[in-house]
């Protein structure tokens, strides 16, 4: 009986051990396989992350090299204007303007992989280049003195469709004064309480400068290359499609409307901007700004969009980067979207 019990006991232990051992080995093998698979997946994630970083670094390096090289070439073009014949200066300035516009487009197309710091540096370099371009044009092609021509009060009003009126020939009625478009520098300066108009023929893809204007209504009908606004107070400024950038500095209590590739705004307050922008608007040291989609219209607007090269269907009017507000996930207190009920719908009054 003891032997039988022993056999039975041994058989029972053997059987039980066999079952337990087999189950444990299976579980161990499963754990090893899971761990091995996790190692493979982790290695794959690290490899993909490394490749992604490598691609991003290569893109940034390519952008940096290409941007710097093109900027240097444009600066060399501008430097060659010093002391050159007028025809060569004109040719170089046209080429520099076109290449600066293309450089702006290159920056806009690279936004997805640039950091905020890299973007800010590139935009500052572009703004400096635009300033050099304007200064070189003013120095190498001296502008003619501003001359004034009178418009009758009836002619000075913009029609409901936004078409500029013809100039009146009679000097007896001072009416609304406008700067003659024959000057090399296209724009208006040091004017108060006037209606100021530029036509497409006067603008002709030039850089337009508006400075020291107070309580003026400005209509720029055409497609400027760039638009510079500085020291603007209580004005309404409407502009056709700007092929590259709009730069605003020290503007207050005004209403602005324009399409552009890039908007850079400094030191501006209590201003409404009706905007069509194909990149992202940037503000710095600003407060009390409100944005709405561009809504001004005039008969040749579509033609001017074609001249400017802007994408009519791409409008990032509410995508605003505030360089003074870096709190992620919290809206900047310095700008808002203008409520629809408060948006201007009629521009001819």
List strands and helices in order, with pairings.
Layout: H1 2-79, H2 86-109, H3 116-140, E1 148-151, H4 153-156, E2 176-179, E3 186-192, E4 195-198, H5 200-203, E5 207-214, E6 217-220, E7 226-233, E8 236-239, E9 245-252, E10 255-260, E11 262-266, E12 269-277, E13 281-284, E14 287-293, H6 301-308, E15 320-322, E16 335-337
Parallel strand pairs: 3-5, 4-6, 5-7, 6-8, 7-9, 8-10, 9-11, 10-12, 11-13, 12-14, 13-15, 14-16
Antiparallel strand pairs: 1-2
Helix pairs in contact: 1-2, 1-3, 2-3
Overall description:
The protein is of the alpha/beta class and 349 residues long. It has 2 domains: 1-142, Methane Monooxygenase Hydroxylase, Chain G, domain 1, CATH 1.20.58.1250; 148-342, Pectate Lyase C-like (3 Solenoid), CATH 2.160.20. The protein contains 6 helices and 16 strands. It has helices spanning 2-79, 86-109, 116-140, 153-156, 200-203, 301-308, and strands spanning 148-151, 176-179, 186-192, 195-198, 207-214, 217-220, 226-233, 236-239, 245-252, 255-260, 262-266, 269-277, 281-284, 287-293, 320-322, 335-337. The strands form 3 sheets. It has a 7-stranded parallel beta sheet, with helices on one face. A 7-stranded parallel beta sheet has the order 4-6-8-10-12-14-16. A two-stranded antiparallel sheet has the order 1-2. α1 (2-79) packs parallel to α3 (116-140) and α2 packs antiparallel against α3. The longest helix has 78 residues, at 2-79. The chain is globular and about 95 Å long. Mean pLDDT is 79; it is low at 1-18 and 145-184.
């Amino acid at each position: 009986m003891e032997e039988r019990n022993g056999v039975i006991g041994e058989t029972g232990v053997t059987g039980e051990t066999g079952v337990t051992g087999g189950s444990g080995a299976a579980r161990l093998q499963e754990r090893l396989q899971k761990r091995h698979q996790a190692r493979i997946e982790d290695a794959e994630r690290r490899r993909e992350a490394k490749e992604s970083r490598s691609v991003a670094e290569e893109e940034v390096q390519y952008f940096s090299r290409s941007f710097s090289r093109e900027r240097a070439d444009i600066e060399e073009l501008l430097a060659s204007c010093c002391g050159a014949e007028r025809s060569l200066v004109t040719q170089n300035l046209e080429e520099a303007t076109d290449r600066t516009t293309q450089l702006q487009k290159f920056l806009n197309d690279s936004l997805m992989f640039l950091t905020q710091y890299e973007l800010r540096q590139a935009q500052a370099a572009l703004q400096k280049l635009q300033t050099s371009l304007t200064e070189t044009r003013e120095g190498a092609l001296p502008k003619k003195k501003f001359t004034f021509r009178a418009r009758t009060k009836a002619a000075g009003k913009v029609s409901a469709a936004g078409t500029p009126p013809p100039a009146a020939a009679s000097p007896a009625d001072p009416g609304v004064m406008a700067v003659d478009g024959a000057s090399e520098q296209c724009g208006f300066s040091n004017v108060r309480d006037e209606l100021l108009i530029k036509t497409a023929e006067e603008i002709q893809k030039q850089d337009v400068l508006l400075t020291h204007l107070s309580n003026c209504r400005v209509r720029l009908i055409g497609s400027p290359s760039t638009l510079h606004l500085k020291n603007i107070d209580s004005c309404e400024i409407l502009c056709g499609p700007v092929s590259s950038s709009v730069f605003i500095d020290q503007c207050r209590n005004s209403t602005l409307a324009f399409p552009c590739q890039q908007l850079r705004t400094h030191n501006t307050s209590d201003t409404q901007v009706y905007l069509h922008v194909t990149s992202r608007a940037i503000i710095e040291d600003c407060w009390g700004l409100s944005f709405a989609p561009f809504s001004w219209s005039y008969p040749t607007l579509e033609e001017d969009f074609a001249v400017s090269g802007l994408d009519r269907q791409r409008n990032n009017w509410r995508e605003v980067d505030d360089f003074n507000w870096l709190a992620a996930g919290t809206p900047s207190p310095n700008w808002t979207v203008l409520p629809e009920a408060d948006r201007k719908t009629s521009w001819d009054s």
